[in-house]
Amino acid sequence: MASPRKHVPYEFSLKEAKRKCSEKNSCFVMEKTTEHIVLHPRYLGCVKKGVHEHMKCKLMRHSDILNGVPVNYEGFEIEQRAGSILEESPYIHFDVKVNVILFKPTIGSTLVGTVNKLGIDHVGCLVHNCFNASIAKSNFTNGLLFDSLDIGSEFTFKVIGTEAVNGVLAIIGEVKEPKDNKRKRKHKDIETVEKQSNDEGDQPREVTKLYPKRLNQNGLNIPDGNIKVKKREKVDKHSREKDRMEIY
């Protein structure tokens, strides 16, 4: 009978971690820090190997000191030529400087998640295929995106909180969906048309028409000519000015 498969945690290669540092919305950063090493006596003849083993044990676990999750590291420099032994403990203590690549999401940063769980009141997703994030239904602006998500769907969210328990990081997010501007635009266009109509109604309009006959001041017919009509319309629900005609 085959033995059960051992769970292997997700790991980032140094090349992949460096590449993600330059990607947008990845929250990967490289920081130079000082790490305190507690070296086992068996590594006295191979100190560098002991330092590597120490650093590997800290990867993919949230660090309260660094305020992030170390995913990989690059090079280190031992600061002391001699270590310290405390009381009766056989372990050697010394410090090293090392460049650590961290996954360090902060409140307000943006991440991309892949849905791996759909609940009644929340959505669970993975960030970078390994970090857990949860978005409550109430944290979706209008709920349209929440109803359209499926397992494997990708979406962008904003970090509003983080929590670490036993070295495991959990991310809390929210989704600000774009509002439906179509209806708003329609109302805006109607208001613009009404405003233009009001502006035109307040201004007098001059209309020139041709009439076959016209009368002079004595009531007699005079040759055909132009009658200039000054017409002023007042936009009012209850009143309207009468047209005035002047003969020249």
From TrEMBL:
The keyword Transcription regulation does not apply. It comes from Stylophora pistillata. This is DNA-directed RNA polymerase I subunit RPA43. GO terms for cellular component: RNA polymerase I complex. Pfam families: RPA43_OB. InterPro entries: RNA_pol_Rpb7-like_N_sf, RPA43_OB, Rpb7-like. Belongs to the eukaryotic RPA43 RNA polymerase subunit family. Residues 180-248 are annotated as: Disordered. Residues 105-202 form the RPA43 OB domain. One of its GO terms (biological process) is DNA-templated transcription initiation. It is found in: Nucleus, Nucleolus. The lineage of its organism: Eukaryota, Metazoa, Cnidaria, Anthozoa, Hexacorallia. Residues 188-208, 233-248 have a biased composition (Basic and acidic residues). Keywords: DNA-directed RNA polymerase, Nucleus, Phosphoprotein, Transcription.
